[in-house]
UniProtKB/TrEMBL annotation:
This is Major facilitator superfamily (MFS) profile domain-containing protein. Residues 127-605 form the Major facilitator superfamily (MFS) profile domain. Its main location: membrane. It comes from Alternaria atra. Keywords: Membrane, Transmembrane, Transmembrane helix.
Amino acid sequence: MPSAKEQRYGREREQNGEHDRQHNHKHDYKHDCWPGWSLSHQADDYELRLFVKELENSFGCDRPAGDATGTMPPYKPERAYTKSSISTSDSTAQLLKFDAEAAVAEAVEDEPADRKDWKPERKQWLAMISLSLVSFVVSLDATILVTALPEMSHSLRGSAAETFWTGTAYLLISAVFQPVIAAASACYGRQRLLVMSIVLFTFGTAFCAVAHDFAVMLIGRCVQGVGGGGVIAMTQVIFCDMVPLRQRPQYFSMVLASWSIGSIIGPVVGGAFVESASWRWCFYINFPFCFLGFFAALLFVDDVDVPLANHPRRMDWLGAFLFVGSTTSLLLGISWGGTQHPWASAATLAPILAGLLGVAGFVAWQWRAQPHSLLPVSLLRSASSAAAFFCALVNGLVLFTGLYYVPFYQMSVRGSSPVRAGIDLFPAVCLLVPGSVVVAILTSRLGHFRWAIWLGWSVTLVACGLFTVFDERTEKAVFALALAVFGVGNGMVLTSVNVATQAIANQTVAKKEDRAMAACMYGFMRSLGMPVGVAVHRADDAHVVDAQPEPGVNMIGEDVVEGRAREAQSRSHEVQRNTYSITGERTLVNNGEAHYAGAEPERAE
């Protein structure tokens, strides 16, 4: 006969079972929210069972309902706990493991598409094409003026410094605003920032197209730079939201290919416009792409929901101000050094030192401003991230140094026309894009990228070595071979470093929006290297000019001069001048005579 305590406990179980049946409670043994329930079935002590019951009630947990007689259903625990089998250290380890998994589960994005068999839907394909289109026009605008600047400088009666900053201002502003726009997209939405960037780029293009002096031209180029930087940043961020990491290199190669093609054919298109129409067509050509990109972004690019935690008030505005100000000051000093001012002058050192101090202050503020800092602090602590970002910086520097160096070498040393100088870049573009696409496919399938980084830099180093032996007697076959090697190496580096930055971010950064910022940092560092590369080219150009024995010495061969003179005489209009340098500081061919020009270009009457 059961004891009084057992009878009392049986009545309580029957009452609880009847209560559960009235409220249609359904239970699953595997989802009991109080793990002590299994322990209560193993205990023989009545007081322990009552204690467990009180804990269950206090935590709001339901107990399994009994049958019609109030009898509990049979229960078979997965593990029989005894007093000696429960270890405090083991339990703590399991609890810590559970907490870590829960934290990661909350932080990592919920991407059901993160599978090996992920394929883009129709709308996602259209979004990728739209992003590739706007990336193409932004990169085209970055280099299209390489062969058009001399004619534009003559038309607008600009000085050497004004001509130089027409090309550099766009690259500089484009670089420094990329992280700011990417961070703002986490507060205001991806699609809004992409559309805003396209609109700014279009307005800047309109300013440049109607400019009649360099003041308006520089304003337009700066506005273009903000919009172009936003397009580059949002392309990276949107791809991170849309495509899983495993498949991202394969599909992002579309954007990299578009960006590469636009960058390399820019000088060809610019030279063709100068010879057949007007330099203003270098800006008119942007409008159709801008309008198509604008409507495509509205129709095909989905906006992500902005979390309440990412309210605009949480935007790190002070960090954005420090970042833009310090990087701009640093790049200004680097651009001035050796060209407009000596490297040891106060005009050069002051902005460089101010920029370095600003960067140090920005980094310190990022630690203080977390978790709402402009850049993820975990990226700043990772040595792997620093190495990958440095590779992106050098990649942009090397690529744009080559893109600016080769056309000027062709026009100045070999006497090529602007169109011919641009066409000579085709060996690079013909192999840069395939190299980038092949590496993207291999890294997606193999899951490794370090081999591509090492091989890409090795090939690029060989190409840069070949560039150093160029002179007026270099064979065309050697020239084409060097450009082909240059294209293959840079194509491999473009894709592999991009994959590396995003893979490292997936290991070091938990939040989804921070991973997107890490991807944007790749584009920023690559864009940061571009104006530095142009400044290096210009400083080296000025150094070579200063090294000439006397101003009157002809800097190009007599055969080149005669060839250019015959070409000028064959034209229907009189050639007033043909300046090949971006600064307008080098060789003038006027009436078939070559002169050295160390001063500003002569102004048209």
